[in-house]
């Protein structure tokens, strides 16, 4: 059986979410380069894999998938017996354990991701792409993210991780955007470090070897 394939650049937040999950699950993978600069993600061949023309796309034998969080859930289900076995909830946690993880994966996708993506775009990618930054969009995204992080701060005051006492897919899904905010922006640092419980949570989840490996892959790709 060949290793699974992930299509897209490691610098993409959605691609690195999938890579972190594969590393947690100890699933060997092959990263297939897709140049966004050359619009390879809009080519007919790529659209057969990802009909919206975005990265990542994913293949495991006959199975082709898109949407990073759905891909992560598939990886957890397919490779259930290996690597980290509590990504989809603690052992014996049943439907409630899985729902707690799903609830915070959804919170990431619906509440954390939109403002943090907008902020990362304005503060990190716009300057790299020599695009004009939009102060109104930055202010709006920051305001929305602040409100979301206030909810996280309260929740994490009574819970080690988002879905309970174990690191799960819910925490993992936050790593890519939070990493960009912290590693590359002063504003992101202020937003995260000023909240004691969020800061404690971030220190713990970003220290995982799986994420360190993704960061190393990004460094090598940028070199
Ligand atoms: N919801 C999608 C989002 C994918 C996405 O936004 N990918 C970005 C890179 S992080 C992309 O392909 N951007 C190029 C484009 O939209 O043309 C997922 O999680 O997989």
TrEMBL record:
It comes from the Eukaryota. GO terms for molecular function: glutathione binding; glutathione transferase activity. Residues 2-83 form the GST N-terminal domain. It catalyses: RX + glutathione = an S-substituted glutathione + a halide anion + H(+). Residues 94-223 form the GST C-terminal domain. It comes from Ananas comosus. Keywords: Transferase. Its EC number is 2.5.1.18. This is glutathione transferase.
